[in-house]
Specification:
Shape: globular
Helix content: 25-40%
Structural class: alpha/beta
Strand content: 5-15%
Number of helices: 5
Radius of gyration: 16 Å
Number of strands: 9
Largest sheet: 5 strands, mixed
Order of helices and strands: EEEHEHEEHEHEEH
Strand order of the largest sheet: 4-3-5-9-7
């Protein structure tokens, strides 16, 4: 656990003797062409694992240097994890800021209670059965389509995520440059 603003860190992490700083944490299932190409160009090896929270823990434990996701997660997947990762010197932010060419500042998710999605970015996120406010408005297998603010759940993280360990931050510029290359042929999914 930890809070960067209070300079507090306390943990019992299972850190391997040789940390895997070029491990790329992903879901157990399929990943987007964007992530496949990004891993390849970075020379990172895929480390599949279930659960967003588990991948955040693995990042802290040195079992991967980066967790980048262009598919949907929710606020409960990132809120506490962001605090702990940042207390340990890492960072968790919106992937869109990197993809859209801003490497100067981390753009974080908003965790304030709201009836609408405070992180919605026009012409970015595809509507899915998981992030749709009205579940009947889209079915699994429907062609992806960009959604409007009022169509999304307030708690959905619509902008992807990038989480880097303290050690992974050393590769921030390289990851940013590689994202810029990859997005030209394999855009992020945001679904």
């Amino acid at each position: 656990m930890g809070a960067a603003s209070e300079n507090f860190v306390h943990d019992h992490l299972d850190i391997p003797a040789t940390p895997n700083h070029t491990g790329f944490l992903t879901s157990n299932g399929g990943v987007s062409p964007f992530l496949v190409e990004l891993m390849s160009k970075l020379g990172y090896q895929r480390v599949p694992s279930g659960g967003a929270g588990n991948k955040m823990l693995m990042l802290l434990e040195g079992k991967g240097g980066a967790y980048i996701q262009d598919r949907g997660v929710s606020r409960w997947d990132t809120c506490a994890a962001q605090a702990v990762i940042e207390a340990h010197g890492g960072c968790l932010a919106k992937l869109t800021s990197f993809v859209n060419g801003d490497n100067s500042k981390w753009h974080h998710y908003t965790y304030k209670k709201s009836d609408s999605n405070l992180d919605f970015e026009e012409n970015t996120a595809n509507l899915t059965p998981y992030n749709a406010r009205e579940k009947k408005s889209i079915k699994k297998g429907d062609a992806p389509r960009l959604g409007k603010l009022e169509e999304f759940q307030a708690y959905s993280n619509l902008c992807g995520l990038i989480a880097l360990s303290a050690e992974g931050l050393a590769n921030k510029d390289r990851i940013f440059e590689t994202i810029q290359q990859v997005k030209a042929t394999h855009p992020a999914s945001y679904d």
